[in-house]
Amino acid sequence: MSASPSPILIRDVTAIPMAPSGQILDHVDILIHPPRITALAPTGTLTIAEDTYILDGRDKLALPGLVNAHSHAGITLLKTGSEALPLEPWLAWLIPKQLEMEPDDCYWGAMLACLEQTRAGITTFADMIALQEPCAPAIEQAGLRAVISMSVMERDPWDGDPAEGQARLERSIEFAQRWQGRGGGRITTRLAAHAVYTVRPGLLRAYAEAAARLQMGVQIHCSETRVEVDGCLARHGRTPPALLGDCGLLELPILLHHAVHLTDDDITLLDRPNVGLSHNPGSNLKLQSGRARLPELVGRQLAVGLGTDSAVSNDTLDLLKELYLAAVLHDWPPGSGPSWRVLEMATIGGARALGLADRIGSLEAGKRADLILVELSEPRHLPGSDPVRQLAYTARSSDVATTIVDGEILMEDRVIRRLDAVEIARECRVRARRLLGG
Ligand SMILES: [Zn+2]
Fold this sequence. Notes:
It is a single chain. By secondary structure, this protein is of the alpha/beta class. It has helices at 87-99, 103-119, 132-142, 162-179, 201-214, 226-236, 240-246, 264-270, 281-286, 294-297, 319-328, 338-353, 387-393, 421-436; strands at residues 8-15, 25-33, 36-42, 53-56, 61-64, 66-71, 122-129, 145-152, 187-189, 191-193, 218-222, 254-258, 275-279, 303-306, 371-374, 400-405, 408-412, 415-416. Strands 1, 2, 3, 4, 5, 15, 16, 17 and 18 form a nine-stranded mixed β-sheet that branches. Strands 6, 7, 8, 9, 10, 11, 12, 13 and 14 form a nine-stranded parallel β-sheet that branches. Strand 2 (25-33) and strand 3 (36-42) form a beta hairpin. It is globular and about 70 Å long. Zinc ion is lined by residues 70, 72, 221, 257, 309.
């Protein structure tokens, strides 16, 4: 459970720093004094202390740790519980299922999500769920970086008691204040509302006011399906992004999840540096939500990250799978370099979308030492002359060898150091059987 106190040197690695963009550096050494990266230099040129822990970087790529811009770790135990359901009937199945979950089910699901993400090279994730209270300790214990929220959803936003939503808002504010900066600063909190179809505008306004007062960011699902957009137009006479703007939310650091069905006016409205979007191609495909306008969204002031969404709608937390989907699902114009674009989304773009780009997202001296080593040695990668295209088109989570967060090695050569994988698997199997049968 202890952090690595000794310096770490990754020796003779091929580095893809992501800042500046488009650079691949062969034969470099990366020096880490936890929790920070302190130097990147040609191999053999750095002076190191005697107690430096050496990681052999030969035949490996060093990348910034991957950023999963959207997840719901607490419901991981419901993985593979459904198929062939669009979002709306899927939610009708999921919400009562969630009510059957005990706090410990969420805790162990979050543990499993952290274990899977550690093995997949995901060092930071954004997470929102109503049941966040039991998940947060698991996230803290796992050693990953995370932006977490206790998400609010009203039982009946149109005819129900507004006091119920207000009470949930108060609880989520108390949670966000209590968890801000925990885990040695690895955990940051945001306020979250589920979506415009489950939270009334008055409560969204209260959210915006609370977040502004507390100087916190927010996150919310937005324009995920055609049904959501049509419902918002019918009820409120505007699209979901326009409604969020009316409620004051677009003035804040805001992370919008999915953003599949955006109009031209929505894109113009959202194109500002405080707006982040998470693109979740695997989940959008499984829930039959449609295809986002991704090539039109990258390269703007707004930041675009890549997300898995929950294990219930994906069903893996493998961001390299999402890299592949984002690279092949869209009509990228010739010369637009989708492999670089999607790698940016999975690293520095995600960091920007989560408001963490001053700390993570690139390999630079002074930034937090959140990085991964990837080995492209399997036959499916070969011969392969372009490592970024290999990452986008041939890589899988199992190619990640080593995962480091804040200078702590959480996995080295596929061996997990912090978490007890056997105990997590045992707990999760028993609990999932109770929830899903089988
Ligand atoms: Zn979601």
